[in-house]
Amino acid sequence: MTQPTRYPQHTALSLAVSGVPVLPLRRGKVPFGNCPACVDNACGGRPNMKTPGPCRCAAPCHGWAAATTDPAVVVSPAWAAAWRQAVCVAYHPGGAGLTVVDLDDADAIAWARTALPATRTVPTTRGEHWIYQGAMRSVNAVRPGVDIKSSMAYARYLGPGTGTMANLPDAVRALAVKEPPAVRPAPAGAVPAGAGSGECRHRTPAYLDRGIAMAEQRITEATSAVHATVYRTFLAVLSRHGRCGCLTDTHVARLFTAAQAKGETARHCTDAWTNARTTLGL
């Protein structure tokens, strides 16, 4: 990997040739938004999901999924306007078979030096990127000041770094495994049972399972405003099942797991669940 220059396109081209998928970042160090043809997924693509879908847009659309190793795309007229506005280059670590442990401050760096094996490091504005050979799923806030950027994510390219790159260790993979916190079951008996049935109709396994599955899908398919989507989904589940005692810790854990897979922390999940219960007076 080459040292970044004041000409982002030159750096991007060198990286692409070496097999690292690249994309331009605009002011704010964020990807370029979807072009008019792709806005609101009109193209059928799936920005921020595992695959971009059938979209064949030539512009740097769809966030991390726009990253390319094709030099012809990097220098194409469709990307020219983006490079003129770009402030830096990003890359898709997972697409290059890499994982970046993003250490955001001195405390996070101090923790990594005692908990993780040494590897290639790259200085950042406030901390360091530790780069390992091997890909995994990306998860934000696995510890205070620590994010994991690999599959379905992008990282800024800040230079080749120093040190020998180590293989992705189990210690990093373990950071992505989050145990959902125990959640108190919703109070039972607050809603009368269905007329003549003798029990709450929500206790029908198929009815409840279908509702939980639909909630998981809604969270999983969120492409933006994940925090808001998680809260609204929790609110919808609780409004239907929260007063009859149907929900168990297992059901709630499924919802928390879906939210955490989208990058939410355990604390975010707990706060959203608590706020939804409060809103409904539970």
Notes on the protein architecture:
It contains nine helices and ten strands. The protein is α+β, with helices and mostly antiparallel strands. The strands form two sheets. Strands 4, 5, 6, 7, 8 and 10 form a six-stranded mixed sheet that branches. The protein has a four-stranded antiparallel sheet with strand order 2-1-3-9. Strand 7 and strand 8 (146-149) form a beta hairpin. Helix 6 (205-220) packs antiparallel against helix 7, helix 6 (205-220) packs parallel to helix 8 and helix 7 crosses helix 9 (266-280).
Beta-strand level of the residues, as a percent range? Answer: 5-15%
Output the structural class.
alpha+beta
Give the helix level as a range of percent.
Answer: 25-40%
Question: Describe the biggest sheet?
Answer: 6 strands, mixed
Q: What is the string of SSEs from the N terminus onward? A: HEEHHEEHEEEEEEHHHHH
What gross morphology would you assign?
Answer: globular
Overall radius of gyration: 22 Å
Number of helices: 9
- Mean of pLDDT: 81
List segments where confidence is low: pLDDT < 50 over at least 5 consecutive residues. Answer: 47-52, 179-199
Q: State the end-to-end distance.
A: 55 Å
Got a strand count?
Answer: 10
What layout of secondary structure does this protein have?
Blueprint: H1 8-17, E1 22-26, E2 30-31, H2 71-74, H3 77-85, E3 88-91, E4 98-103, H4 106-115, E5 120-123, E6 128-133, E7 139-143, E8 146-149, E9 155-156, E10 166-167, H5 170-175, H6 205-220, H7 226-241, H8 249-261, H9 266-280
Parallel strand pairs: 6-10
Antiparallel strand pairs: 1-2, 1-3, 3-9, 4-6, 4-8, 5-6, 7-8
Helix pairs in contact: 6-7, 6-8, 7-9
